[in-house]
Amino acid sequence: GQQVQQSPASLVLQEGENAELQCNFSTSLNSMQWFYQRPGGSLVSLFYNPSGTKHSGRLTSTTVIKERRSSLHISSSQTTDSGTYLCALKLNSNNRIFFGDGTQLVVKP
Amino acid sequence: GPKVLQIPSHQIIDMGQMVTLNCDPVSNHLYFYWYKQILGQQMEFLVNFYNGKVMEKSKLFKDQFSVERPDGSYFTLKIQPTALEDSAVYFCASSFDRGDTQYFGPGTRLLVL
Fold first, then answer.
1. How far, rounded to the nearest angstrom, does the alpha carbon of residue A19 sit from its chain's CA centroid?
2. B37 CB within 8 Å of a chain A CB
């Protein structure tokens, strides 16, 4: 079954608005990563966040293990933030990463 | 931070031909991975590799696929022969240890005609 579920599937914002992306997982995890996938397909790692809260510029990631969820908050969105955001989890039981379906973000000027 | 490189960034080949995708992992990493993402679909695990051996592979890792890392050079994914359904973006990743974070390359976009 689906190990990782992301929501929303798509999100349209006006520049300057904030975005909250969610990732829920169905089993205990070893680590959680958030990626940004550019429209051309290349992948950029945003956060490696197995638990707690991490900040990087306008981005904040919060993982709450006992609630089996992780979120990515984008503040003051910019048009260049447009793209697909993927969360991925690695299970304690094996060494592979399971990706969510992604959230497609469009930020309009 | 640590960088994983992938060569080429794009490849177009005819169905039935062989293709080799190259990955230059982080220099001191010991575990290597390939993932496949068909356009518009979820990224999925193909295989992981350690100490010269395939440790784990998924159902997507068909018999036509093979991986190797000869003499500590590139970590390669070879597809022979290619099929139309192999068209996808292939991502390489590496990690130092089994439980560590995986660092991803930018991907190779493969188009099989």
1. 11
2. yes
